Amino acid sequence: MELRLYNTLTKEKEVFAPLDSARGVRMYVCGPTVYDFAHIGNARPVIVFDVLYRLLRQLYGKDKVKYVRNITDVDDKINARAAQEYPDLPLNEAIRLVTEKTEQQFHEDVDALGCLRPDVEPRATEHIAEMRDLIDRLVKAGFAYVEQDHVLFEVGKMNDYGRLARRSLDEMEAGARVEVAPYKRNPMDFVLWKPSKPNEPGWPSPAGITVLGRPGWHIECSAMSWKHLGETFDIHGGGIDLVFPHHENEIAQSRCAFHAPIMAKTWMHNGFLQVEGEKMSKSLGNFITIRQLLSDWKGYAWPGEALRFNMLRTHYRQPIDWTFQSLDDSHKTLWSWYELVQEVAPAAKVPSEILDAISDDLNTSLVITELHGLFRSRRLSELRSSLYLLGFSGKKENLHRIARAQVNLTTSGHLASQTAIVGGFANTGPSEIDKLVEQRNAARARKDWKESDRIRDELKAMGVVIKDNKDGTTTWEVAR
Ligand code: AMP
Ligand code: ZN
């Protein structure tokens, strides 16, 4: 049996073999920018590459696979969020609070989805030295230039820039906006390093620049993958939206810095997720976080394994439409299987039809068809070992879906009746919520931001959103 993976770089399904079998398989996946709860679209690459990670460990052995997924903890969105959430704190401290808290939330969420932690989770801010090193190399080799305290990558210096996205430089330039930043020689040149504004986080700059600065987004992944996987490695993944410009630019940086013909051998991209037939967006009101699904979405707190199963019903390269109906079906299917498999010991081996399907470019939708077949023919111990390979526990205790009673909202948006959470959780009524709000106000009064955040997040997990009003009062409402 051979593993075949679709490679965005060649647009072909290829037989996979590690570049260096002694070193094992090295895989890098672009991770979250930590400023807010991860949404269900962000969960897709985490789940898809977790399945690949589990398969690679099965095929090559656990100590022969190294999976790196970064945490982007320096970014304009983080700065904006920090300033908005903690206007009274120095920005650096506010940023630390936002990134630490968001990273922890992210871990809790993806743990609940049954995803293994990667072997290394590097943070961008801990790799600034490697970024400076890469940038110095690029300037020295003539691929990058310094202008107005910025360092720019000069795309015209790389003869096959655009190969991953299959766009020529001429096409890209024609499509570029007319307004070009004054420090750019060419509209497509991209930022490797930029000066920090006086109140922003800043580090000593590369390339002889004397003011403090901060990295561009793309250089972060080139630096972290280099540090933890080497100049060239096996698999690089992420969502399809990252092909251009993020991955194209990572390739440009790494290949030009190391004079290497490739950065990663196989480039894999998951398709996009939409919700009930529409692009997910805050303004359409269909934006769902993982946390919301786990605590209260359309009347239920959904078990992580049902979310995971629902994600895997669609092949990872296809777009996926996230609907209540398919999630409900997924939950029912798993429940019917778990009822029978939980008493059965897993088979020592995963049946070949399952391994074949998953090794064919992670064809999880075919895998699920095969799982239905195992269930129908009551090959239960094989069903259990197959579920286990895909990251499912097979235990009914992990599959309880908790119904939440309807919450009646008054016209003002305040809670009128009890938020009764049926089963599992204790009833949580307004008095309980008011108590938490009071505790949070007390924490804020003594400037204990950690505690006040913790309480706010606890409330958020209960579906209660806190509002700090300009007049100093705090109100809350149930998020729907
Ligand atoms: P971001 O935090 O936006 O950089 O996204 C983190 C990861 O989630 C990236 O790999 C994105 O490609 C992926 N992603 C973001 N939105 C979606 C979506 N709606 N569907 C599938 N993947 C997504
Ligand atoms: Zn990246």
Task: Describe the 3D structure.
- By secondary structure, the protein is an alpha/beta fold.
- The chain has helices at residues 40-60, 76-85, 91-112, 128-140, 169-175, 217-229, 243-258, 290-295, 304-312, 324-341, 352-359, 364-376, 380-389, 430-445, 449-461; strands at residues 4-7, 12-15, 25-29, 65-69, 144-147, 150-153, 190-195, 213-215, 233-239, 264-270, 273-275, 300-301, 320-322, 402-403, 464-468, 474-478.
- The strands form 6 sheets. It has a 4-stranded parallel beta sheet with strand order 4-3-9-10, with helices on both faces.
- Helix 11 packs antiparallel against helix 12 (364-376) and helix 14 (430-445) runs antiparallel to helix 15 (449-461).
- The longest helix has 22 residues, at 91-112.
- The radius of gyration is 24 Å and the shape is globular.
- Bound molecules: adenosine monophosphate and zinc ion (ZN).
- Adenosine monophosphate is lined by residues 30, 32-33, 41-42, 44-45, 238-239, 241-242, 270, 272-273, 280.
